[in-house]
TrEMBL record, chain A:
Subcellular location: Cell membrane; Membrane
Residue stretches making up the V-ATPase proteolipid subunit C-like domain: 9-71
Taxonomic superkingdom: Bacteria
Membrane topology, as annotated: Multi-pass membrane protein
Pfam families: ATP-synt_C
Naturally occurring in which organism (per UniProt): Sphingomonas sabuli
Family membership noted in the UniProt record: Belongs to the ATPase C chain family.
Annotated Gene Ontology cellular component terms: plasma membrane; proton-transporting ATP synthase complex; proton-transporting two-sector ATPase complex, proton-transporting domain
Name of the protein this chain belongs to: ATP synthase subunit c
Record InterPro entries: ATP_synth_F0_csu (IPR000454), ATP_synth_F0_csu_sf (IPR038662), ATPase_proteolipid_c-like_dom (IPR002379), F/V-ATP_Csub_sf (IPR035921)
Keyword annotations from UniProtKB, A to Z: ATP synthesis, Cell membrane, CF(0), Hydrogen ion transport, Ion transport, Lipid-binding, Membrane, Transmembrane, Transmembrane helix, Transport
NCBIfam families: PRK07558.1
Function of the molecule: Key component of the F(0) channel; it plays a direct role in translocation across the membrane. A homomeric c-ring of between 10-14 subunits forms the central stalk rotor element with the F(1) delta and epsilon subunits.
């Protein structure tokens, strides 16, 4: 296999991580909604924590994207 | 990446000098990046000055400015505590600069001939410096208030004695990674959104010359790109909020030591 095709396949494999992070972000907001509907009075106070969880989950997906870009444009 | 159709999605991130200026070996030209930063600064300045007339009965504009400052004030009070008052100016500058820079990059200024909008926050040299500013502020505040006791940040309360050699390095690594994760998040989120929009925009352009099948692909891409732009507008606000929120949380650590 030549370098160019291995590069494209590697970048595609690295992009799987972005999909996994999508599951994580969905999990964060899904769990928040589920419990916010059970106790709406307490929901507003937890919005900071919601965004911290979102930021942590999203960062891992963005790192996967950065790795894919590094592989794709490596010389 | 093979350049089919000749549209290069990375070209929009190129920094080009507008007014070349060299002092000795240093290149301090006014680039499109710094020009858009100045445009953002002018926007923020105009927005604030027009709303700071201190009328007894606030108009719409003053209400908008008071809403923004009140939002940052609440962010600092909730996340840092009563000491957060001192950090409100910094958090406010951070939030407004990132928000305006993100939104300016998304505005369709390209329809004016000769103008290309540029997202300043899509470069790690900008977001990395912002993250380093936050990080050094945490270090300065921590050592100023607590001296060498600041290092007890690496040993959480109630850690059993045998666990300390294990916990302390992990806490130290997670502390040192903060500036990188802070800068990387904003930079990659902006760059990913702009590449996505550029790629689907190139599908529309290439689809125009591709017969009925190409038109169908172009139409679908057009619908999708509208959804992506809406998502990106949301992303701009969320990224600015997350950056200032995380800075506030790190400052809480520095002020209160867990």
């Amino acid at each position: 296999m030549d370098f160019a095709s291995a590069q494209v396949i590697g970048a595609g494999l690295a992009a799987i991580g972005v999909g996994a992070a999508a599951i994580g972000v969905g999990n964060v907001f899904g769990s928040f909604l589920e419990s916010a509907l059970r106790n709406p009075a307490a929901a507003d106070g937890q919005q900071g924590r919601l965004f911290i969880g979102f930021a942590a989950a999203e960062l891992l997906g963005l790192i996967a994207f950065a790795v894919a870009m590094i592989i794709l444009y490596a010389r | 990446m093979a350049a089919e159709g000749g549209i290069d999605p990375m070209h929009q991130f190129r920094v080009e000098p507008l007014v070349p200026l060299h002092i000795g070996p240093y290149d301090i030209s006014l680039t499109n990046s710094s020009a858009w930063m100045l445009a953002g600064l002018a926007l923020i300045f105009g927005f604030m000055v027009l709303g700071m007339k201190r009328q007894l009965v606030p108009g719409r504009w003053q209400m908008a400015v008071e809403g923004l400052t009140g939002f940052i004030d609440g962010l600092a009070r909730v996340n840092i505590g009563p000491e957060g008052k001192a950090f409100v100016p910094y958090l406010f500058s951070l939030f407004t600069f990132i928000l305006v820079a993100n939104l300016l990059g998304l505005m369709p200024f390209g329809i004016i001939p000769g103008v290309h909008s540029f997202t300043t926050t899509s470069h790690f040299s900008i977001t990395g410096v912002l993250a380093l500013l936050s990080f050094s502020m945490v270090l300065i505040v921590g050592f100023w208030r607590h001296g060498l006791r600041f290092f007890s940040l690496f040993v959480p309360h109630g850690t059993p004695l045998p666990m300390i050699p294990l916990i302390a390095p992990i806490e130290f690594i997670s502390f040192m990674v903060r500036p990188f994760s802070l800068g990387l998040r904003l930079f990659v989120a902006m760059i990913a959104g702009h590449i996505l929009m550029e790629v689907f925009g190139s599908f529309i352009v290439s689809g125009l010359g591709g017969g009925p099948m190409g038109w169908a692909v172009g139409g679908l891409s057009f619908l999708f790109i509208m959804f992506v732009v809406a998502l990106e507008l949301l992303m701009c606000v969320i990224q600015a909020y997350v950056f200032s929120l995380l800075t506030a949380l790190y400052l809480h650590d520095a002020v209160h030591l867990h």
